[in-house]
């Protein structure tokens, strides 16, 4: 009668009486299995370390805290490199891309920086492995002189003149322009 009133089976009653004799309480074993859709912490750490291994550049044009990865990279390439580096981790492209977009504020491309053709030419000479140390020192000195002249020129232009009105328009995000850091070439192109 007891079994039929409470709707329990004989096996359950036997199990409870055995636990009572041993002075133990029954343990609820529900929910003990690992979640099917969770990613192990070591996999997430490997993904984050892999993304942070790529060189990044900051920009001074953006008000946000944004860093830029190389323009030749994309998420698909980075995922392929991750899979080749960690073949034992089964990480899908969708998961990698989602983690990349939600965890990091990274963009692809080159941060917009204005340089003049002379500065660019002298920096290339300084970094060159072909030129000797004397030529590099001469290029460094020429770059210092060039920057001083440019600063003097910009200070002269910045002097207040009441007859001149200056207007600037920033079309950096509106116009698709080529990836050229030299001002003369960038601004003289036909749009």
Task: Give me some keywords for this one.
191 residues, mainly alpha, 2 domains, 3-stranded mixed beta sheet, 4% strand, elongated
Characterise the protein shown here.
It is a single chain. The protein is mostly helical and about 190 residues long. The chain has two domains: about 70 residues, no CATH class; about 70 residues, no CATH class. The chain has eight helices and three strands, in the order αααββααβααα. The protein has a three-stranded mixed β-sheet with strand order 1-2-3, with no helix packed on it. A hairpin with an 8-residue loop joins β1 and β2. α6 packs antiparallel against α7. The mean pLDDT is about 85.
Q: Please estimate the helix content.
A: 40-55%
Gyration radius, in Å: 33 Å
Task: Output the strand order for the largest sheet.
Answer: 1-2-3
* Sequence stretches where pLDDT stays below 50 over 5 or more residues: none
In total, how many beta strands? 3
Question: What form results from the Cα inertia axes?
Answer: elongated
Number of domains: 2
Output the structural class. mainly alpha
Major sheet attributes: 3 strands, mixed
Strand content: under 5%
Distance between the termini: 92 Å
Q: How many H/I helices?
A: 8
Query: Helix and strand succession?
Result: HHHEEHHEHHH
Q: What average pLDDT do the residues reach?
A: 83
């Amino acid at each position: 009668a007891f079994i039929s009133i409470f709707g329990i089976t004989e096996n359950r009653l036997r199990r409870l009486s055995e636990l009572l004799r041993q002075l133990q309480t029954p343990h609820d074993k529900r929910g003990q299995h690992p979640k099917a859709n969770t990613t192990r912490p070591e996999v997430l750490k490997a993904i984050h370390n892999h993304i942070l291994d790529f060189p990044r550049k900051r920009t001074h044009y953006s008000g946000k805290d944004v860093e830029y990865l190389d323009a030749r990279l994309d998420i698909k390439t980075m995922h392929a490199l991750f899979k080749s580096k960690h073949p034992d981790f089964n990480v899908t492209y969708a998961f990698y891309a989602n983690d990349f977009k939600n965890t990091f504020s990274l963009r692809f491309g080159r941060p917009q920086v204005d340089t003049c053709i002379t500065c660019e030419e002298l920096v290339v000479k300084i970094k060159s492995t072909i030129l000797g140390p004397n030529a590099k020192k001469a290029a460094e000195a020429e770059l210092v002189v060039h920057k001083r002249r440019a600063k003097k020129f910009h200070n002269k232009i910045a002097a207040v003149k009441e007859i001149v009105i200056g207007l600037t328009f920033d079309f950096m995000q509106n116009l698709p322009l080529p990836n050229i850091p030299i001002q003369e070439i960038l601004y003289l192109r036909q749009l």
